[in-house]
Structures are given as structure tokens and as C-alpha cells.
């Protein structure tokens, strides 16, 4: 029986070993002791699917090696313009506040807490929650700027910038994002009606504009005839459903779960981005089980809690 586990931080490829504990919380404490920091600065993360493991989860779900995000011990306002304006999160805050692009003020710790909460809720755009004369400010922040202002550690920057990109791809892939068939680079079309895309990466390599069809992914030419119906991309969606990877859900240890599903309510194509079976459709906000596809009733899944097994539904059909 394995009594030790291997880990590495997100910003390093150096492997370390710690004693295996019963829960994620136990391992956080072991890692913190090894790295000579406090355990609340340590998060155990899933690098592939960009989520943080719950401290109460059994440690058996971890891969070997697993990945660790080491948080910043302090978040100084060095290099930032500070102010005496009240903090938008807590108006009685006495720590130095910095000025945001919208004119409101916040401490680095409160900014980090706000960003962490929103990004872990699968948001990829950040809006100011401060108040003004007309209600909520709601001005969109530049993501790179506020990530820098929150004084992230190297590990935190890797995780949260990656998570925001991951959130963006998941939310936009149905309408705007496709992988180039030549290099697998993610390409974005400007309008939902555009029938083809240009891959910047392939264009740089090939010395000419490499374009491909949005629907069938074949090389685009002026005389291109798409093999997929323009008005309805059913064939491609069915292909994605059939050819998607099969996953094991960490929390419930259920195997054989397709990584892509159609929302049982609005039929939008969704991709699994977390360790549990509970899914909230980003389009119609329907909550359902990603394994058995049952809809939640009054906020609860009929098939049990997030860590309970159920019968995995077969690959769906677009019919």
C-alpha cells in the first residue's frame, strides 16, 4: 500500500514526496510542513480541469504526481496608487487600498478573494461590484491588470489565468471557438455568422493565410462546399458527443462518463470542467447530473449528492 505521494508546484517541475493522508486537508498540511509555510497558503489542484480539490475529499482521488498551488504569504501594494477611499468589499477596511481602473478602491487581499470566488464560479470576465450614484458600478476590469494588482504568487497566476482561459473556452466554444485541424490551436471567429476562420499560428508557419471551415473543419477555399449543413451543425455536435474523451469523476469515483453532454433542457453542448457530477448549464442555468442526466428538483439531484454514484447514461444523440 502506497504511503507516500509525489507532488510538484505549478511553477516548478521539481518532484517532492510527502506522507499520504486520509483527506486533501491532511495532504495540504503535509505539503505546507514540507514547504515551510502555513497550510491555508496551500491548495491541491487539478491542473487538467482547472479546479481546486475540496479539503474534505478523500485523498484517493489524487493523481500521482499531483499539483500544488502555493499562495502568496503577503500581498503588498508596492507600485500601486493607494487611496483613503473606502474599500468596495468592506468599507471599514484599514489596510492600504489601491485604485482600480474604474476609480473604486480595494485592498490586494480583498481583490484576490473576489477574483478567486468569481473565477472558481467559472466566470472569465470580472466586473466591479462597487456602488456609485446609479447603483452597481459593474464596469468590466482588464483581467491581466487586476490579476497583477492582486499580487498573485507565481503558482496562483498560472492557475487563475489558466482557469479564466479555460472558462472562456468552455463558454464560447459552441459559438466562437474551434481548434484548427492543422495545429490544434484555438481560433476565434468574430461573428457567429462567419463560415470560416483564419488560424494565426498556421498562417505564420505556412507564410499564407490558412483558413478552415467552421462546420466541417476542412481547408477553406473560395469554392468550398461544406459537408455539413450550414444552418444546423448537428453532424459536428454528434461527432463531438461520440468522440469525446471518457472520464472518471473524482468525487464519486464513477468511470465511463462522457466528457461532453447536451443540456437536458436547452440541448446546448457542454463540457465537464469539474470533479463532481453536478453541472449547471451556462446557457439556461438548468442544474443536472452529468452522469445520469437527471435534472435537479428544488436544488437537489434525484440521483444523490455530488459524491454518490448513479447509473451513467449512454452517449446522447442529437435526434
UniProtKB/TrEMBL annotation:
Coiled coil: none
SUPFAM superfamilies named in the record: RING/U-box
Keywords of the record: Metal-binding, Repeat, Transferase, Ubl conjugation pathway, Zinc, Zinc-finger
Domain of life where this protein originates: Eukaryota
Entry's Gene Ontology molecular function annotations: transferase activity; zinc ion binding
PROSITE patterns per UniProt: TRIAD (PS51873)
Protein name: Ankyrin repeat and IBR domain-containing protein 1-like
Organism: Crassostrea virginica (Eastern oyster)
Gene: LOC111102875
